[in-house]
Amino acid sequence: MILAEFGWFQMLLLNWALPGIIGGIIAYVPLSMIIKSLRKLLDTLIAANEDGKISADEYNKIAADVKDLKANLVGLLTLFMKTRGTTMKSILMVLICGILLSGIGGCLWADSGTKLSLNMTAAAIGEINKRCETGDCNACREGLLRATKLTSNIANLANGGRGEVSE
Amino acid sequence: MSQITKIRELVAKLPLELQPYASHYVELLLNFQTSEIAALLDLAVGGDIKLAYQMLVAKMSTEELLDEMDRLNLMLIQQNKDAKAESEYLKNFLNVAIVIGIAAL
Question: Which of A126, A134, B94, B95 is the most exposed place for a label (fewest CB within 10 A)?
Fold first, then answer.
């Protein structure tokens, strides 16, 4: 009910802003940290190389750091892509299950109150049927008119409660 | 103690969800023998509501039975409306879930 009463702002927040913020925290922060570190190392490497004041050992050390950082970046991206795939599959599975369950209809969702009223209706119609068989014409005629409405409403309820009612 | 008070006491011993239904039929139960009331309550407590209700409607006059059918129809209409509201809620929930799913891709 709460979701049904949401306005456009809340829907916008829930649909776009929230996943965006969560996605940003999960993906952007570690990625940007690695990229910044990599950029800093590369700048140092380029500057040192241009000055010509860097020793071969220092150059090799920075180059190794850059290589490690690149490997970490690729590893993180791969992990992110894999996790993203798993998360996507999980979300899709939950959605498919939800859609299937909701599509099965009202019978499975019927609470005890609904089952009780269905049983009561069936018993009342059964009693009218008995009175028809005994030749009670008034009960039969009036009862059948009511039974038609009841049957229509039971059918709607059994089909998942589409709200179509026979007054 | 009058018979109707005794019946009300018996109704009070039923499960809570059945009490509003049973209270509606207290007057009708006056037409029952004590053994019939006991059998009916046993059925209701045992969960065989349909059979218990069949016993009740069998004792109703034609007018009472027709009124009862009208009452049942009103009950079904209300339940259909409630079910529609639940269905709308579920639909909205699925819409939100789908959009979140797409946004997460």
Answer: A134
Mark yes or no for CB contact B62/A20 under 8 Å.
Answer: no
- Helix, coil or strand: residue A85: helix
Using the Cβ of B55 and the Cβ atoms of chain A, whether some distance falls under 8 Å is answered with no
- B17 interfaces chain A, CB cutoff of 8 Å: yes
Q: What is the pLDDT of residues A7-49, one digit of tens each?
A: 555 555 555 555 556 665 666 666 667 677 767 777 776 766 6
Does the predicted interface ipTM exceed a cut of 0.85?
no
Burial (CB < 10 A; 0-12, 13-18, 19+), residue A2, is: exposed
A127, B72 Cβ separation under 8 angstroms? no
Query: Are B80 and A112 a contacting pair at CB < 8 A?
Result: no
Q: How far apart are CA B56 and CA B93, in angstroms?
A: 42
